[in-house]
Design a protein that fits this description.
Shape: globular
Radius of gyration: 19 Å
Order of helices and strands: HEEHEHEHEEHEEEHEE
CATH architecture: 3-Layer(aba) Sandwich
Largest sheet: 7 strands, mixed
Strand content: 15-25%
Strand order of the largest sheet: 5-4-3-6-7-11-10
Helix content: 10-25%
Number of domains: 1
Number of helices: 6
CATH superfamily: Vaccinia Virus protein VP39
CATH topology: Rossmann fold
Length: 246
């Protein structure tokens, strides 16, 4: 299957089925990889809401796609002219899908099995980092954001599932020990811990409310520049706030 340009739709369909099930619905020459996705045309419908927030011309840029899944965002970044795109995932099945989709799309993309916690060992920075739909699958989400602060060169595209209040209160710099009522406010930064499963997935661990997602980004040293979609934030690396020794 080295020459994929000559594959018929029937052959593409057969390979899509062999590599399935897919979470990314990608159009491969008229063959949809997940046409019955429970979210609809995912992730394209989400992408179309924030695509304008990313430069259309990425000539010369390097891009890291963390939790690349079937490769949708990696392929889109290559279409915008990125010089190098590296997609990483911990799931070999998703990586196989991404490699197939990229080759069939004519996109030269590197895909590697790698954990977000190991990214520091790469010793590299990337101009643009996609961190989409990963945070809530991590047992140590703030550690991951701390690591990414040293990886993001110019922009991070961050998305996390959110539950709870969509509000975000203005949090004081400090509270006395006797203050407890503030923690009962629904718009106080809160992270929901999933002990067992959520939506049947045992890898769903932590789900923030909006205030918590934004607070965690700031705590890791990111500056939120825009919020173009309900769960998506465009961030740049800034100065880390002082962190006490604990």
């Amino acid at each position: 299957m080295n020459d994929m340009t000559s594959m018929s739709n029937a052959e593409i369909e057969a390979e899509v089925q062999r590599l399935g099930p897919w979470f990314h619905n990608i159009d491969l020459h008229g063959v949809k990889t997940a046409p019955q996705h429970f979210l609809g045309d995912y992730p394209r419908f989400k992408w179309e809401k924030f695509a304008h927030a990313i430069p259309e011309d990425l000539t010369g840029a390097t891009v890291l796609d963390i939790g690349c899944n079937g490769g949708f965002y990696s392929i889109e970044m290559k279409r915008r002219g990125a010089a190098r795109v590296l997609g990483i995932d911990s799931d070999e099945a998703y990586l196989a899908q991404a490699r197939f989709a990229a080759r069939l799309s004519g996109a030269q993309i590197e895909f590697r099995k790698l954990s977000v916690y190991d990214l520091g060992a790469l010793g590299e920075q990337f101009d643009i980092v996609f961190f989409m739909g990963v945070l809530y699958h991590l047992r140590h989400p703030l550690l991951a954001l701390d690591i990414l602060h040293g990886i993001v060169g110019e922009m991070m595209v961050f998305q996390s599932m959110q539950r709870g209040s969509a509000g975000a209160m203005s949090v004081a710099d400090d509270y006395p020990f006797t203050e407890s009522a503030v923690f009962d406010r629904p718009d106080f930064p809160k992270m929901h811990f999933i002990e067992n499963r959520y939506t049947g997935d045992p890898t769903n661990w932590w789900i923030p409310n909006r205030a918590c997602a934004e607070a965690m980004l700031r705590s890791a040293g990111f500056v939120i520049e825009s919020h173009p979609e309900q769960e998506v934030y465009i961030c740049r690396p800034g100065m880390r706030p002082p962190i006490g020794d604990a």
